[in-house]
Amino acid sequence: MNGHLSPWRTEQGRAALRNWMTLLARGEGDIADFARDVVAGRAQPQDLLYSAYLDERTVASLHQAVDDWHALPADQQQAAITAAGETTEAQIAALAAAEVTEPARRTAPPADDRDDPGDGIGPILRRW
After folding, report:
1. pLDDT tens per residue across span 61-112
2. How far apart are CA 2 and CA 24, in angstroms?
3. pTM of the entire predicted model
4. DSSP of 52-68, one letter per residue?
5. Which residues contact 48 (CB under 8 A, 6 or more apart)?
6. Could you tell me which residues belong to the region Disordered (predicted)?
C-alpha cells in the first residue's frame, strides 16, 4: 500500500463495509449467514479468512476464481491491478453513499454447524 492507509480502513471504507455486509445479509446461503453474523457483531469481516464459514461449494468457486486469475495473460492481470485502486475507491464511495437498512432479524441465531478443525488456517487458505 506504499505506506498509505487502506481505503477500507477509512471512515468511508468502514461505512461501505457495513453497508455491504448489510446488503449481503439480506440474501440466502453461507455468505449471507456470515454477513448476518458480522451485522450482529458475532463476527468480523476478516474472520472469513480464518474460520470455516463457507461451505465447500463456495470455497471451490473461490479457488476457481483464483485459478482463473492466474490463467489470465500478464497484460490483463496488470491492467486489472492498475485499475484496482480507482475501482476500489469507486466501489467504496458507492457503498458508503447507499441508504441501507439492516435486514430483519431472525428469531434465533443460525446454527453453528461450521466444521472448523481449529488449526487457525481456515478453509480458503488451507488449499495453499
Report:
1. 999 999 999 999 999 999 999 999 999 999 999 999 999 887 655 544 554 5
2. 31
3. 0.71
4. --S-HHHHHHHHHHHHH
5. 34, 54, 122, 124
6. 98-128
Long-range contacts of 1-9 (CB under 8 A, 24+ apart): 7/88, 7/89, 7/92, 8/92
Contact 103, 26 (CB under 8 A): yes
Instruction: Give pLDDT, residue 5.
Output: 80
Cα dihedral value 99, 101, 103, 107, nearest 10: 170
- Closest to 104 (Cα-Cα) out of 32, 31, 54: 32
Residues 6+ apart with CB under 8 A from 66: none
Pairwise CA distance, residues 122 & 51, whole Å: 5
Determine the straight-line distance between the first and last CA of the chain, rounded to whole angstroms: 23
Cβ atoms of residues 71 and 57 within 8 Å: no
Grid cell in block for residue 80: 486489472
Residue type, 43: A
